[in-house]
Structure formats: structure tokens, C-alpha cells
Amino acid sequence: MSSTASGNDGTGNGYTGPGNGGTGRTAPWRNWSGNATARPAREVAPASVEEVSAAVRRAAEDGLRVKAVGSGHSFTSVAATDGLLIRPHLLTGIRSIDRAAGTVTVEAGTPLKRLNEALAREGLSLTNMGDIMEQTVSGATSTGTHGTGRESGSIAAQIKALELVTADGSVLTCSAEENADVFAAARIGLGALGVVTAVTFAVEPVFLLSAREEPMPLDRVLAEFDQLWAENEHFEFYWFPHTGNTNTKRNNRSAGPRRPVPPVKGWFEDEFLSNGLFRAVNHLGRAIPATVPGIARISSRALSARTYTDLPYKVFTSPRRVRFMEMEYAVPRAALADTLRELKAMVDRSPLRVSFPVEVRTCPADDIALSTASGRDSAYIAVHMFRGTPYRSYFTAAERIFTAHEGRPHWGKIHTRDAGYFAAAYPRFGEFTALRDRLDPERRFQNDYLRRVLGR
């Protein structure tokens, strides 16, 4: 499952122990950040849509709830279950490529990393990506994983069709032309409408992206944000709390040639500084919180400006090996500057010590019922805390600011909102819940998280 910034260590699927072939109790499951756990009654690892259908039907006969888990990268318990856990590691690979239509159909358990590498070998690419690629296709899309972009944003918005196993084991194919009402909702379905078994994405001929990364004062970024957004296909920045500093990133298409970051320089900046050294200073900050503001000032100046040109997925994504907790909210893009200024003022006047930068990205409006960008141009503000560091006071204060600006929380990241809030925040929330009533009247795909965010 996702996380926009969505942390990862690149090592696997969040599963902690072997399955037992469906007999007896299983080992506990936990997510990547370790804050969500479950002990399913049974596990299966289907290798086909037919096996998924059979597993769902058997679970219904046995009175078990059903959840499909991705790679464990959600910070919520969206995939947790005490019933049947469907693991996706055999449901992988590309089914077909239609070059004339510009689409690729892929099994839902395929990791995004493998999909991107396979597409590149075929001379193809997704239009946009989030900043990691360890999630599965279905986990990333079902929770609304997104990147940043002026004209393109979420991965789910690139879906052209999907295959869904519903509560009675039926296989439903949906697109804008077939079962359009399901398609409008299931692209970001939270696992509430069924088990996604295949996804068809729009793809395009592979292209090159040029990245320009450089430090910039926060006041300047906010003053010039509309211009920076308008002039770049993909703009994002990271603000370092306790400072007035940011690191900005602008990605734009390039005619080439390809000039990737040199291997030694890439290792030093992306592995040693951004992961190894960053992990060490976070351990120091956790042990001695008073050091955090000084660490933030040093960190905000540690990375110098750089430019490089490479394949899209190598520019959009980067390794994230330091584990953390995360909250992310989408606010109307026009409200970004005010929201971030309020967040900075809150941190400055509080005793909080925040060692992780705040990530800011944008997405254009889309037509997906529960997309955080549904019906409005959006800006995303993601706050993080090093795992093992108290985070609730920071997140609570940040959430108060985000919700005051009509914020919508990322479905796979920490938040405290419930169905009452979402009914007001999403004009099409009732459309989604009505479809859920039709496709899953007995709540076969229910769990505690969905009960809170969608209602009973």
C-alpha cells in the first residue's frame, strides 16, 4: 500500500513470517512503519484471478472478512484483517501491451519498480510517478498514491480499465465504457469494493526528464509559487522546519542527451547523505531533542544544487531507507501558501522538535470519486517524524491547520478523520458508499479502518 512520500526501505512486502497454506492461525502481519498489525485467520497467495475468486467465495462460506495487502507501505490499517489475507506476490507481471491504444495491462500485485523497469525495456513509460516505487500496483492506486505535476498527478488517474473480484467471487471488468459507475470509484477504492486483480494503464513512448534541484528560501518559494508551478511540468519542494530553507526540484521533459547523476556522486548524495547520515542524525535528535534545530540548519544546507537527465522513473523516484511516520493532506492549491505559513508559525512557537523536512507537491483536479484531488486542483503537504519519536502532538497540531483549509487526508497516511468529515469533504462520497452497498452489502471487505472512514 501507498505512501506518497510514502516511506520505504526497498526490502519487501511488510509481511512477517510464512503463510501456512490456509490451515490454522498465521504469523502476524505488520506494515512497513510498524504502527499497524494484524493476525489473519488464513492467508492465500493466488496466482490468477480464478484463484482469487475461489478464495473470496470460500471466505464467504466460512464467514471470514477479506483483505488484499500490498507491500505494507500505508501508515494506516487499511489492509489489516483478522479474516482472510490475500498476498499478491504471485499475481504479478504484464498481461498485455497495446501499442496502438497506448495501454498496458498488468497484474495487480506487480511492484511499481518492476513495472517501470519492464516498461522501459519496451520503450514505454507512465506519465507520472510518486517518489517511491516499492508499492504494488493495486496498493498504490487503491490508496491514491500520487506524484507532483501541473497536468498529471496521481497514478490512479492514469488507469484506463481494471479488473475486480467482488464479494460473491464474480469478476467485474470496468472502464469509462463498461461499468462506468464502478470505474469512477474503484480506481481509488480503498479495498472496499473488491479485490483488484489487474489494472490497465495509459502509457506513452519513453521520454527523458531533466531535473533541477536547488536550495531556495521558503519566503521566496511561497511568493513565487504560482510562477514556479506554471513554468514547470513537475515542481515540488521540501521545507526544513526550524529554518527558512527549502530544497526545490523542477522536472521537465528533455530532448536529451541522457545525463544521469554520476554513480559516485549519486551514492554520496542519495545513499550516504540522504539515507545513512540522515538516519544517524535522526537517532541523535531522538536521543537529544535539543539538537534538532541545529541538525535541521545543517541538513538544509547539506545538498548542493544539481541537474541531471534520465528516464522518468529514475527522476521521479528516490530511495527512502530511513523509517518514519507520516501524515499528508491535500488542500486547495490556492490555499497552499497560507497553510504552510500557518504550519511554520505553529512549529516556531511550539516546543516541537521536527527533524524531517515537510514535502510539498501538487496535482490537477481529477474525476475519481475519492481522489484527494477530486474536482479541485490540489497541493499536498506531508509531515513526517522519525520512527520511535513522539509524533502525535505535531500531527494533531498540523491536522488542525489542514482541516481548517478544507484538507483531505491521504487514505494511506495517518489521520483522525471519519465518515462524517469525508461526507462533507467529498461531493461524491455518497456515490461511493452507495456503490459499496450494492457491491458488498454484507461488508465482506470491511475492517476497522474502513468502518471509521466510510461508515457502517
Spatial ordering of strands, largest sheet: 16-13-15-14-18-19-17-20
Instruction: Give the CA-based shape.
Output: globular
The helix-and-strand class reads: alpha+beta
Oligomer: single chain
Provide the gyration radius in Å: 21 Å
- Number of continuous helical runs: 14
The percentage of residues in β strands lies in 15-25%
Number of strands: 20
Overall mean confidence score, pLDDT: 90
- The first-to-last residue Cα distance is 23 Å
Description:
- With about 450 residues, this protein is α+β, with helices and mostly antiparallel strands.
- It has helices spanning about 50-60, 110-120, 135-140, 180-185, 220-225, 225-230, 265-285, 290-300, 310-315, 335-350, 390-405, 420-425, 430-440, 450-455, and strands at about 30, 35-40, 40-45, 65-70, 85, 95-100, 105, 125, 160-165, 170-175, 195-200, 205, 210-215, 235-240, 245-255, 305-310, 325-330, 360-365, 380-385, 410.
- The strands form five sheets. The protein has an eight-stranded antiparallel beta sheet, sandwiched between helices. It has a five-stranded antiparallel beta sheet with strand order 6-7-11-9-10.
- Helix 10 (about 335-350) packs antiparallel against helix 11.
- It starts with about 30 loop residues before the first strand and ends with a helix.
Explain briefly what this protein structure is.
By secondary structure, the protein is an alpha+beta fold. The protein contains 14 helices and 20 strands.
Primary descriptors:
alpha+beta; 20 strands; five-stranded antiparallel beta sheet; 23% strand; 14 helices; disordered N terminus; eight-stranded antiparallel beta sheet; 456 residues; single chain
